[in-house]
Amino acid sequence: MFSRFSILSIKVGTLLILSGGFSGTAGATNFDESKVGHYTLPDVLTANDGTRITNSAEWYSLRRPEILEAYRDHIFGRSPQPGTNVTFHVWETATNALNGIAVRKQVEINFSGTTSGPIAHLLLYTPANQSAVPTFLCLQFNGNYTVDPDPGIAIFPELNPKSGLHEMPTNPRRGAAARNWKIAETLAHGYGVAFIDYREIEPDLPHGAGMPYGVRKNFPAPNAGDWGAIGAWAWGVSRALDYLETDKNVDAKRVILFGFSRLGKTALWAGAQDTRFAAVIANCSGEMGAALSRRDYGETVNDILARFPYWMCGNFQQYSNHWDRLPVDSHMLISLIAPRPLFLNTGSDDRWSDPHGEFLAAQAATPVYELLGRTGITETNFPPLDHLLLHDLSFNCHTGKHDILQTDWDDFLIFADHIFQTQK
Ligand code: GTR
Q: 112, 181, 244, 287: least buried by Cβ within 10 Å?
């Protein structure tokens, strides 16, 4: 397919001789725009049978379902319905949290309703004396005690992969990741903000070793085509939304799902499947998130398969070196969120995640937003750094690395204000 693969096959051949096995790594990473190669994206508005989609009825009845099916069959796998007896226990409601600006709730989510769990912990802040507020639901990487120094946030045992037991973290640092959030400002804008540690849905361990400890253990063992770890995390965050639907402090019809990096990929997939999410913010989601897979720039399909095959479904494994055979590309994942608002945030130094590939995907998904009466990326050129393109499909590239910056939250709040004011 791409000319680079002829070179690659030589490299792979060398690897075979040296290591006695194909590592799955596709040679040196390309960071040169002139070497991206030619590719043709599947047309998001042409159905598999060749029908040209010209109105929203055709989109919803024909094209959207087949794109969703392609993602289930080939990319992330098929997630089950809620299925198990998920239970919620609101074990704390503190009405005077964060020096009086917030109500803090802490909720135990038991994904099986039995002692074998698994159990995740949702931390929810809503503005004091307000109910039914739009809320950010944030997938995040660590115990909830890291999001803010608030001494009221409970610290729970975490899985020790070596022992297989849950143990209290040694020297937990409250607020260690506080620089990634803007909780007080978010509350001041009239929004709630909830956090869930994705590892509690399923631990993210090499070779998929986290599966016996996560939500997938409660379902029959996966076959090729069944769900991968991203599917599991997405399923889990939908259960967190099930809880938010029961909480009168939250307007569950206005929940913005947020995820960064692998959790940006997860947020996109969760939002694609679960249309109850009102909007999605995918921060630096990169390969198998919002970045086009057919572009040979930064992380590739091969890289994902070499390091994180267990994130994906079994059928995905066949696309190593065959990106052009993928039945979808990331503009189609984006199109599954439409017409709901979506914000793709990227970083200038995050070349591994291919910011330009995310911009091109957003452009390629724009016809779907427009077909559904929403605004997509009308701009022809990649915007200047730190210049938010504010639409229903929004885009920004911050100056800096693979990260969630304080200035990103300024943009996320502008985005939230915009979508909730224009779409009341
Ligand atoms: C990287 C991976 C990226 C992104 C990132 C993260 O190693 O290559 O796709 O998911 O991890 O989640 O931190």
A: 112
